[in-house]
Amino acid sequence: MDIFSIPSQVWFGQLLIGLINGAFYAVLSLGLALIFGLLNIINFAHGAQYMMGAFLAWIGLTYLGINYWVALVLVPIVVGITGVIIERTMLKHLYKMDHLYGLLLTFGLALVIEGLFRHFYGVSGQPYSIPDSLKGGTNLGFMFLPNYRAWVVVASLVVCFFTWYMIERTRIGAYLRAGTENPELCQAFGINVPLMITLAYGYGVALAAFAGVLAAPIFQVQPLMGSNLIIVVFAVVVIGGMGSIMGAIATGLALGIVEGLTKVIYPPASSTIIFMIMVVVLLIRPAGLFGREQ
Amino acid sequence: MKKRALVMAAALAWSGASFAQEVSDDVVKIAVLTDMSGTYSDLSGQGGVVAAEMAIADFGGKVLGKKIELISADHQNKADVAATKAREWFDAEKVDMIAGLVTSSVALAVQEVGKQKNRMTIVSGAGSSRITGEDCAPTGLHWTYDTYALAVGTGNAVVKEGGDTWFFLTADYAFGQSLENDVSNVVKAKGGKVLGSVRHPFPASDFSSYLLQAQASGAKVIGLANAGNDTMNAIKQANEFGIIDAGQQMAGLLVFITDVHSLGLETAKGLLLTTGFYWDFDDQNREWSKRFFEKHKAMPTMVHAGVYSSVLHYLKGIEKAGTDAADKVVVEMRNMPVDDFFGRGGKLREDGRMVHDMYLAEVKKPADSKSDWDYYNIKQVIPGDEAYRPMDKGGCPLVKK
Fold first, then answer.
1. Domain boundaries, chain B
2. Helices H, strands E: what count in chain B?
3. Residue B365 per-residue DSSP state
4. Helices A8-39 and A147-169 meet at what angle, rounded to 10?
5. Are the C-beta atoms of B186 and B157 separated by less than 8 Å?
6. May I ask the CATH architecture of the domain B25-145+281-352?
7. Based on the number of CB atoms within 10 Å of its own CB, is B201 exposed (0-12), middle (13-18) or buried (19 or more)?
8. What does each of the 401 residues of chain B score in pLDDT, given as a tens digit?
9. Which one of A119, A139, A263, A264 would you mutate to disrupt binding with B, by most B Cβ within 10 Å of its Cβ?
10. Which residues does chain A have within 8 Å of residue B237's beta carbon, measured at their own beta carbons?
C-alpha cells in the first residue's frame, strides 16, 4: 500500500523515528515547562544546559573513565547543582520583575556557557560512542531499529512519567504547586517555599542535562548542539501550553512525529512545520493546547 | 643589523613621494574575514589567522619596505554581515586584501564588494564553483578547492570502484546544491545513475529520517552534499542504523581533516574524500604543518594551508608589481607560478581560479594509524588540469572567447 506514492514500510519507519525524536523534545520541553510553570522564568539557558549534559558525559568518559550508565545519573546531578547555584545567586532576584529580565539573563548565560565550551573544545564536536550493552539493533522488518534509540524512548518516557507523577500526584508536588500559586500563605504554613523553588529549577536543569547525556552517543557532542534544538523546544512548549506538564510531554511526542513525516513528504519544510503549527495553535487557542486561560 | 634597517627605512622615507604612491597609505593591510565562532570555525577560524601570520613572517614582515599589517573579524556565515564589514574595511580601514571567506554566500558577496572597490579578495574556505564561474571578478581569486574539483575527485573514484547508483543528502543552500549538481554531472557522465536526493535544512542534527529514505532508494552510494557537523552527524547515524554494514557506501563530498579528527577513525574509516592538502603527504608539508601545529595545537586543514599560500603569493605579487594596486598585483600573481608547498607550481587563471593538484584520500582504519592526526592514505594525486573545470565551461564573462 502506498500513501503519497511512498511505500507503507517507509511510513512505519518514519513514524518510529518521529517518536524517538519526540521523546527528546518531550524531556527537554518538560524541563522548560516545569521551570516556567513553577518559577515564571523563561529558561533560555536550557539548550546550553542540555549541551553541558552531553559535554560532561564526554569529559567524564575521556578524562575520568566514568562510563555511560554512571554518567546518566551523575551528570544530571552535577548540572542540576550548577542550576541551583544560578538560581540562588541570580534568578531569585528576578521573580518580581517582568518575564523579559529572566529571559535576558538566561539568554546571556547561554551565550557565556556556549562561548566557554567553544573556547576550550572548538566546534567540531567530540565523539561519544554508544555503550557496548546497547550496540547493535533489531530488524523490525520495515526498518532496522538501533537498540540505543529504543532505549532513548523508554528512558525518556519513564522520566517524563515520573516527573508528571511527582508534581501532579504527590504531596511534595502539591506543596510546590501551592507555593507558586500563593507563596506568602504557603510560607505561613511552615513550608520553605524558596528552597522548593530552588530545587525545582535544579530539577528542570537536571532534566535538560539528562536529555544531553541521552543525546551524546547519537549526535556529535559540540558546544552549539543545544542552540539548534532549543528554539524548536520552545515552540513545543508554547504549543503545549506554557507551564503545562502533560502538555509538554504529549506535544513533544506528537510534534516529533509530525516533523518526522514532514521530512518524507516535503523535507525543506521540516525546519518550519513546527512553527507553522505554533502559529495556527496560537490563533485558535492562545493559551496552547493544554494550557489554562488566565 | 637594526641600525642598517633604520638607515634603510630613513632612506626609503626620504625617497618619499614616489614610493608612497606605490604602496597606498604606506602599509599593506591584509584582513582575514572568516567564521570565528560557528560551524566552520575549527576548519578555518583562528587557524586561518595563524596561517596568515606565518605567511607574513615567512615573507619577512615587510614588502617594498612597508609594514604588513594583519587584522581579522568574524563573518558569522552571514552574507550581509560580511559585506558590511568588507565595505568598512576597504573604505575606512584601508584594507588592501581580504583572505579566508568560508561560506559560499559570504564569499560571493564580499567578492562583489571587492570588485566595486578594486581591492583583492582571495577565497580559501568557500566551495561554490560560481565564484570563478558566472560571478567571477577581476580582483577575486579562488584558492583552495571548489565543488567541481570535489565532484571530479570523489565522484570519479567512487563510480570507478563500482558505485554507479547514487542518492544525495544535500544541505539546502548555495553550496550544497552546487555540489550535488556537480557530482550528479560527473556520475552521469561516467554512466552512473542518480536515483534521488533529499534537501535537508541547514544545519540539521537528526539525519535518521533522511538516511532511511536513502536506504529505501536502494542506491549503492549515499552522497553527502553537505559539510561540517552535518556530514559528521550523517555518517555517525548511518553507522548506528546499520546502513554501512548493510552494504551501502557513504561518500563524504566535502570532508576536512578536523571532521575526521572529531568523528574518530572507528566511525570514519574507509571514507573516500577529496582534499587540496594533506599535512603528512611529504616532507615539505610536514615541515610547515608542524610549525603550524606548534602555534595552533591542531593540524592544518586545506583551508589553513590555502590561506597561507594565498597570502604569501599575494605578497610576492606586490613585490613584483612594485605597488599594492589590486589590478596590477593580480597580473603579476598570474604571471608567476604559485611556488610553495601548497601550490606546487599551481597557476592562476584569468577567471580567478588557482589551479593546483588535488588529492584523493581514504580514511585509515584505527589499526593503521600510527600517531595523532595520521588519518589519510593518499590514493591518487589528481593533476590540477583534470581536477578543475576548464575555463571556457564556467561562464565567466572575463574569459575571452
1. 25-145+281-352, 161-275+360-384
2. 16, 15
3. P
4. 30
5. no
6. 3-Layer(aba) Sandwich (3.40)
7. middle
8. 555 665 555 554 544 444 444 788 899 999 999 999 888 889 999 999 999 999 999 999 999 999 999 999 999 989 999 999 999 999 999 999 999 999 999 999 999 999 999 999 999 999 999 999 999 999 999 999 999 999 999 999 999 989 999 999 999 888 899 899 999 999 999 999 999 999 998 888 889 999 999 998 999 999 999 988 899 999 999 989 989 888 899 999 999 999 999 889 988 988 999 999 999 999 999 999 999 999 999 999 999 999 999 999 999 999 999 999 999 999 999 999 999 999 999 999 999 999 999 999 999 999 999 999 999 999 999 999 999 999 999 999 999 76
9. A263
10. 218
Sign of the four-CA dihedral B4, B5, B8, B13: negative
Domains B25-145+281-352 and B161-275+360-384 share a fold: yes
A-B contacts (CB, under 8 Å):
109
> Which chain A residue is nearest to residue B47, measuring alpha carbons?
A122
Retrieve residue A106's grid coordinates: 538566561
CB A197 within 8 A of CB A39: yes
In three-state secondary structure terms, B103 is: coil
Contact B154, B273 (CB under 8 A): yes
- Pairing state between β B97-100 and B120-123: parallel
Q: What are the C-alpha distances in Å from B202 to residues A151, A165, B163?
A: 28, 38, 27
* B208/A124 Cβ within 8 A: no
Grouping H, G, I as helix, E, B as strand and the rest as coil, residue A161 is helix
- Residue B218, chain A, CB below 8 Å: the answer is no
A37 φ/ψ angles, rounded to the nearest 5 degrees? -65, -40
**Residue A176 and residue A200 in contact, taking contact as beta carbons nearer than 8 Å:** yes
Pick the CATH number of B161-275+360-384 from 1.20.950.20, 3.40.50.2300, 2.70.98.40, 3.40.1080.10: 3.40.50.2300
Task: Please state, in angstroms and as integers, the Cα–Cα distance from residue B325 to each residue in A22, B21, B91, B110, B319, following that order.
Answer: 58, 10, 15, 18, 11
